[in-house]
């Protein structure tokens, strides 16, 4: 049984890269819902249904024992309901983990003055999930959330190094008064890992930038160590499979920029006829 890694598109590849570096033997299946990306401007209900379909596919068709929602928007809008309602009904013995809580906790541990900026999709910002999760660890934290609606479409279109991206980094980060004085900046969307360099360059050198990939990989390794009954069910064949709901050729071509050469993807249909 493989580990499933899910994202709306390419963003989760930044997580997969770190997870695969730490767990090279473990089998992994990546699913990007590129046909419906980006998720960031969608409603909570819509994101929930898409995530439910993706998790159902990864568990039923790909046989995943454990699925990581390598997407902050999915983690903010769907994780709790998947864990509390869907999983107990359909696969009570399997697990779904998210990325948002480990990253929020790390940010709370890193900050010096308690002032934390969070760049995220509009949907993640609307959920206030970072505000809530950082607040649980650090109730006095001053959390400034900034929605960056143009980042994901530009990254999905392969424009992460273009003048258009430079313009939006300046607008959302460099010239954003809301981020004045923060000592830690969270990249609260897995896609943003691919513009980490540009974001860092737009900030004063003493601001710490936290991209989630590494943190999520560490926490997953720790989780598997604490749950040998789950870890023992995961295959060790070094399998890496890439599934997309979009065009597989385009997915592989773009994906190689983020994951490395030699990637091939298969198209899958995950949409059910009727939503529950
Ligand atoms: N990469 C995702 C996230 O972490 C989703 C971005 C999107 O589809 O808008 O939020």
Oligomer: single chain
Gyration radius from CA atoms, angstroms: 18 Å
Bound molecules: D-glutamic acid
Order of helices and strands: EHEHEHEHEHHEHHEHEHHEHE
Structural class call reads alpha/beta
Number of strands: 10
* Average pLDDT metric: 95
Neighbour order of strands in the largest sheet: 4-3-1-2-9-10
Distance linking N and C termini: 27 Å
The poorly predicted ranges are none
What is the number of helical segments per DSSP (H or I, 4+ residues)?
12
Helix content: 40-55%
- Net shape: globular
What's the short story on this structure?
This protein is α/β, with parallel strands linked by helices and 276 residues long. The protein has twelve helices and ten strands. The site of D-glutamic acid has 17 residues, from helix 3.
Write up this protein:
It is a single chain. This protein has 276 residues and is an alpha/beta fold. It is built from 12 helices and 10 strands. It has helices spanning 13-22, 44-60, 72-90, 100-110, 122-127, 129-137, 151-156, 163-174, 196-201, 212-226, 228-231, 248-259, and strands spanning 3-7, 28-32, 66-69, 95-97, 115-120, 142-147, 184-187, 208-211, 240-244, 265-267. It has a 6-stranded parallel sheet with strand order 4-3-1-2-9-10, with helices on both faces. Helix 2 (44-60) crosses helix 3 (72-90). The protein is globular and about 45 Å long. The mean pLDDT is 95. The structure holds D-glutamic acid (DGL). D-glutamic acid binds at residues 7-9, 11, 37-40, 71-73, 121, 124, 152, 189-191.
């Amino acid at each position: 049984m493989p580990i499933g890694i899910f994202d709306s598109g390419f963003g989760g590849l930044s997580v997969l890269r770190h997870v695969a570096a730490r767990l090279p033997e473990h089998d992994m299946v990546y699913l990007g819902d590129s046909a419906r990306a980006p998720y960031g401007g969608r409603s909570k209900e819509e994101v929930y249904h898409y995530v439910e379909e993706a998790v159902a596919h990864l568990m039923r068709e790909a046989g995943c024992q454990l699925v990581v929602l390598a997407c902050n928007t999915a983690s903010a809008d769907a994780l709790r309901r998947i864990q509390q309602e869907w999983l107990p009904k359909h696969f009570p013995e399997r697990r779904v983990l998210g990325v948002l809580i480990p990253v929020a906790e790390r940010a709370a541990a890193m900050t010096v003055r308690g002032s934390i900026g969070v760049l995220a999709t509009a949907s993640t910002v609307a959920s206030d999930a970072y505000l809530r999760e950082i607040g649980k660890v650090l109730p006095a934290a001053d959390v400034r959330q900034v929605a960056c609606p143009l980042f994901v479409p530009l990254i999905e279109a392969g424009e992460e190094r273009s003048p258009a991206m430079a313009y939006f980094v300046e607008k959302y980060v460099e010239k954003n008064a809301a981020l004045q004085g923060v000592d830690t900046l969270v990249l609260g969307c897995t896609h943003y890992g691919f513009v980490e360099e540009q974001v860092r360059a737009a900030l004063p050198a003493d601001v710490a930038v936290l991209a989630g990939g590494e943190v999520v990989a560490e926490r997953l390794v720790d989780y598997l160590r604490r749950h040998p009954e789950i870890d023992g069910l995961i295959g060790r064949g070094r399998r890496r499979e890439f599934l997309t709901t979009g065009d597989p050729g385009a997915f592989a071509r773009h994906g190689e920029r983020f994951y490395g050469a030699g990637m091939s993807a298969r198209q899958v249909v995950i949409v059910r006829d009727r939503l529950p």
